[in-house]
Amino acid sequence: MGRLVSYQAGFTRALALFTLSGFFLFGLVYADNDNDHDEALKLLRSGKILSLAEILKRNKNKLHGAILEVELENEDNQLIYEIELLKKDGIVWEVKINAKNGVIIKLEEE
Q1: Do 102 and 58 touch, CB atoms closer than 8 A?
Q2: Could you list the residue range(s) of the whole structural domain that residue 62 is in?
Q3: Which of 42, 30, 24 is nearest to 71 (CA)?
């Protein structure tokens, strides 16, 4: 799946790891199907979604912990980044973020 990235260890380093590892947008997103990756790239290029790096940058003060999983999903015709975070206390949180504008829609303990 890739490496876990701790935001408490430094957000700049996290973005660098995503970028250098080829995870700028899709390293963890749409990993199940090659066609999904192409579709996600089209969505990014057309401006219909923000890159994962931009989503993380916009929400760096709210997303504290290690990233366990990231998915790009279509829920009720709305593109959503679903991110699972492992907090320092060992609790996993699910964060849903609007892929178009970067606004957090849902933040809940798993």
Answers
A1: yes
A2: 11-109
A3: 30
